[in-house]
User: Fold this.
Amino acid sequence: MIFTGNINKFNPCDLLMFMSNMGKDGILTIKNENEILSITLKNGLIADAQSEQADAKILKVLYITRLVNKEQYKQIVQLKRETGLNPRQIIEKLELFQINKMDEAIKLGIMDVIFQMFLLEKGDYEFTDIAIDDSFINSLIDYKSIAIELMHRLDEWHETVKQLKSLDRVTSITEAGSKANVNSILENNILKLAKENKTVKEIISLAPIQSYKALKSVKTLISTGWIALSPPEKQDSVQIDSKATFFSDFKIFYKKILSASENQSKIAKLMSFCKKYFDIIILLTIKEATIIKILSSFKDASGRSIYKNLENINIEVEPVFTGVIKSGLSFFGKIFSSAIFDNFENIRQNGECTVILLNKRDDESVILYAALNTEDPDLTPFHYLELLSLLIYMPNDDKIRRVKIKNQIAVHRLSKQENKAVMLIKTLNDLPPMPAVTNQLFKLLSDPKTSSSDIVNTLSKDQSLVAKVIKISNSSLYGSFEKASTIKQAVTRLGFKTIRSIVLSASTRSFFPSSNSSIGILSQGLWLHSKECAVASKKIAEIIHFDEEEAFVAGILHDIGKLIILIKLFDEYKQIQKKQASTKKPEISIEHEILGFDHTVIGELLMKKWNMPENLIRCVKHHHSATNEDDILVHIVSYGNYFSNIYNNRVDEKYFDIELTKKILNISDESLEKLKDKIIDEFQKIEGLD
Assistant:
């Protein structure tokens, strides 16, 4: 059973009460723009709960209580980033201490997740009815026993927020606070964060205690005069905007710039982004070393935006601007002196700035100068400005490299098509598994009679799960000298308990659209093709005495780039499918027409990001373009892909060099005919699955 809905139509407190009264085993997942929360229920009782914030708090508690040292703390953080597993699972694998010693920390995390849920005003939720293994349970919490206390805490929270006016106010430690004799570890931790000028919201997130207790402690320290708050009405918008806000706006402006057809319109949209986040913006049009037009916007001492338009200024004596034009490399560094700035009164010249080339045609160039009067490398919009500018103009360099040159970072540009793919992969951490497959796996993993081959066979039905288990099996937590490249190797290395954790994590971190939606229907066809390619590749490997399991995995993953496009660029995916059906042209060429890149490019980028085995990466990259230089596995997968396409009347033989592949694989015409019959038989069996 899967139960879904929206938080704004079902109060979080009532939702959890309803789930608890059902008395079922399962996972309740809540997802909004900022975070994903998951709550595990056993017979209606709360068995576990997870969020990124709660996991961070658990780790800090373990460090403060000296259950882990500084090096172990860093190791766990890195392994969590690599595998996506929670702190308990990683610590259990590393055998750092008896796992029951972290029971109190885990309970702290559970309570914080539930309170986070209570604070939500919007977001989607999904309850999946699955059996919960007792080995994953520390202790069971009756929701009814904590509901009244948490709702009381919720009232206190809202009252305190009302008194403070905003949680985005910046904290600072007072003279009294710096001299105070502090015995409490918690208060000492909060004072350290205030000394770093964290906002109240950041302190709540970073403090090693439940969120509501952290806020209460902040309020107490303000009352004692040890912490001061910046006035909310004078707070600088750039300073209080979080990375999440930068990223949210980046996505909005990314789409706006991408949809604009004219360069002038793209630049105008980029300027809108700059006006929101930068104190100084200057757009220069330069011809034959002379500025023929300057459009500027900056904020004066009162915060008011001032605009000026100046012309006919020579830039031959401006080394930074001329250097950017000649090299095509962007400048990032401290604000520098320039005769151009002499034209502006009361302009502040401290902080960070960037100079970016936005257009270069013949002897005319357009350059953007943007500056911030702050110096916080951890919280600035420069990175997002750089990525957005790549949508407007790139020199002819084919690769991207960051080169540190004294005080600046120069960026060698990607091709425009590659850059779109790179930015998409940067924002992608996980691909959602199919619910039908995860539910089947949960049933198998709850049955003591389940064999390893049962798990391998079921995992093989889902691209994202195949990629995930192989990725984690090759992480530093589980990896060995030799990389795992088959599902069997990965399952053997990880074990059933870890596989269950991976499936749980994957199913709660992202929702896959329902099978009756448009995206769900299209996904069925994509998964069927992947299965066909995998089965065909395995049969080809069998007759040439190659590793059959490796060929099967390579076939399953070969079109993972298409899955990315389906999930992340659904409208474009529909356009590609529609055009392919009407023109009968190969999808790869249509992808280039519509996206500017194809699924092999974006698939390769994701496989590299996940540190997948090199042989699998090559199959994803070259299965449409295998040559004499490619290894046997690439040709096996290319042939498997071809068989599936021919079987489904999707492509003509002229799009595949069958003679080259036959030669590489050393397959005779007689063997080929027998192979075709076997593969068709296997395809017909596949259609009966699921």
